[in-house]
Specification:
Layout: H1 7-17, E1 23-27, H2 33-41, E2 46-49, H3 52-61, E3 67-70, H4 79-82, E4 88-92, H5 95-107, E5 112-117, H6 131-139, H7 141-144, E6 149-155, H8 164-181, E7 189-195, H9 202-207, E8 212-215, H10 217-220
Parallel strand pairs: 1-2, 1-8, 2-3, 3-4, 4-5, 5-6, 6-7
Bound molecules: pyridoxal-5'-phosphate.
């Protein structure tokens, strides 16, 4: 996207390409509140952050009708800070984290929606669990006792590459994992959401079955981590 376009133009542009049933998460990590407010004034209400502390600070400063999504790696000792308000946690990687989210949600009398992060890339740097591990959680008795979390879908991050074949293979793999896990319905598990696709690959992701895309740089511009 070109430099001279505003956040609201970028948003409009992307939204025009999204089918109605696809949810847009505006990934605002590293961006200042002023910039997020431009998106808010353009009608955006779902924001994604990857650091709990940063999300907490932005939540405090911004309007309360925003839905905050945690899209990054979740450190167990920080779950308590987001438990009062977080709307969806994308990156649940194991049962221990889920148990902590349940515990903190209970303190606030909430049920927190979560996605299981599935490892779909070959890169070691990418987090996530296998389809088997996800299944093991969903059929366990321990999981059924967690009354303050609800698993509503899966999330995945494709390999960082230009190889479209490889990326679409990984997206198709997540879609098939979703279909396999969908049969495991319980009071706290009802899979509906497939969170996949970022600025560079969201159209491909949607063609592979995504219904939630996480888009940052195409809305807010490139991130500058040195600032
Ligand atoms: C940063 C990030 C995104 C957004 O990436 P862009 O390429 O800027 O759209 C999406 N998902 C996750 C998990 C991220 O950390």
């Amino acid at each position: 996207m070109s430099f001279d376009m505003s956040v609201s133009d970028n948003l409009k542009n992307i939204k025009s390409k999204l089918p109605k049933d696809v949810t847009l998460v505006a990934v605002s990590k590293t961006k200042p509140v002023d910039t997020l407010m431009e998106a808010y004034h353009a009608g955006q209400r779902i924001f994604g952050e990857n650091k709990i502390q940063e999300m907490v600070e932005k939540h405090e400063q911004m309007p309360k009708d925003i839905k905050w999504h945690m899209i990054g790696h979740v450190q167990r000792n920080k779950v308590k800070y987001m438990a009062p308000f977080v709307s969806l946690i994308h990156g649940v990687e194991n049962f221990k984290v889920l148990k902590e989210i349940d515990k903190q949600a209970e303190k606030h009398n909430r049920i927190i929606d979560c996605l299981l992060q599935i490892k779909i890339a070959e890169e070691d740097s990418k987090f996530g669990m296998s389809t088997e591990e996800a299944k093991t959680i969903l059929i366990s008795e321990e999981f059924k006792e967690l009354n303050h979390v609800r698993i509503i879908g899966v999330m995945g991050m494709a390999t960082f590459t230009d190889d479209i074949n490889k990326i679409s293979k990984e997206f198709n793999f997540l879609k098939s994992t979703f279909e396999k896990l969908k049969q495991f319905q319980t009071a706290n598990c009802n899979l509906q959401t497939i969170s996949m696709g970022m600025s560079g690959d969201y159209e491909l992701a949607i063609s592979c079955g995504s219904n939630m895309v996480r888009i940052g740089s195409s809305i807010f511009g490139e991130r500058n981590y040195t600032h």
